[in-house]
Amino acid sequence: MNRTPAATGPLLVTILVFPGVRLLDVTGPIEVFTSADEFGGRYRLKLVSPDGAEVTTAAGTRLSVDMGVEDAHGTSDVLIVPGGPTWEQMVKDDALLDIVRALDTRARRTASICTGAFLLAAAGLLDGHRAATHWRYSGDLALRYPAVRVEPDAIFVRDGRMITSAGVSAGIDLALALVEEHWGADVARAVAKDMVVFMQRPGGQSQFSVHARASHTRLDMLRRVLDAVAADPGADHTLSAMARRAGVSPRHVTRLFRDEVGTTPARYVEQIRLEAARAMLESGDDPLAVVARRTGFGSPESLRRAFVRHLKVTPGAFRARFRTTATAGEEPSAVPAPPPA
């Protein structure tokens, strides 16, 4: 059922930009909102910088702005706070945090893209809220701001008037969700089709490298275990086998995983196997029985259950949606429109 449009418009979207901002965090939502105007939405976009001067993004591209913060009067329907690779310096910039707080007080809804969540958290705006950020930094967000309930696998999280997204392209997902909220599902679906993106992408951030997220540990014994699972997901990775590889007891292995990786040994193994199966489905034509055997799931049914549980999609549907249709030297086929939400 389509959601009844909540707006009559035009709606003001204020986007805060600053030196070192990530370009796609800004332009992704802009493309969504301007595209929505072609399908029945009505938005006014304002780019605001701290002093009204143009800013240079992390990519080296210069962005012109509409005004400085002091001239940004009135109430925004949406305030968007993008992120940047220098987030560790950003959260120490008291002047920038004051700007975020001031703009938030004049916004009906505040959104962050990627590491922009760190700015909201440092400003105290996410205390007591659930939130998302780029998978690589979700642990840092949870550690630095314990009052924030971080959801590391979410593409975006809505909690009250706050909405936060995962990394970079997830800002498009967030913006589409806002378009649906404002103007209904038909408008959001039209925008998604026009941009050739999913209106609601399957799965979460678990589709990104599990091993890369977990391998930060400084313990050699644990790193050997993590590397062995990633190198051969289909091998024997029972708790006892991992304990033998690490040279410690099974109970100690479980404690190391909890303290260093933030999950259980069994869940880590399943996530690695899921990632390996995903890669096989994206790039090859092996039957599901072969994929299941090589990645350690054993049977197509076990593979199917894991996909549905974690990615909300069957292996067959995943292959149909995500694998390329072109071979080397061929022109790629026309990309089909994303399925309806």
UniProtKB/TrEMBL annotation:
<dbReference type="InterPro" id="IPR052158">
    <property type="entry name" value="INH-QAR"/>
</dbReference>
<dbReference type="InterPro" id="IPR029062">
    <property type="entry name" value="Class_I_gatase-like"/>
</dbReference>
<dbReference type="Pfam" id="PF01965">
    <property type="entry name" value="DJ-1_PfpI"/>
</dbReference>
<keyword id="KW-0805">Transcription regulation</keyword>
<dbReference type="InterPro" id="IPR002818">
    <property type="entry name" value="DJ-1/PfpI"/>
</dbReference>
<dbReference type="Pfam" id="PF12833">
    <property type="entry name" value="HTH_18"/>
</dbReference>
<dbReference type="InterPro" id="IPR009057">
    <property type="entry name" value="Homeodomain-like_sf"/>
</dbReference>
<dbReference type="InterPro" id="IPR018060">
    <property type="entry name" value="HTH_AraC"/>
</dbReference>
<keyword id="KW-0238">DNA-binding</keyword>
<keyword id="KW-0804">Transcription</keyword>
<dbReference type="InterPro" id="IPR018062">
    <property type="entry name" value="HTH_AraC-typ_CS"/>
</dbReference>
<feature type="domain" description="HTH araC/xylS-type">
    <location>
        <begin position="223"/>
        <end position="321"/>
    </location>
</feature>
<protein>
    <submittedName>
        <fullName>DJ-1/PfpI family protein</fullName>
    </submittedName>
</protein>
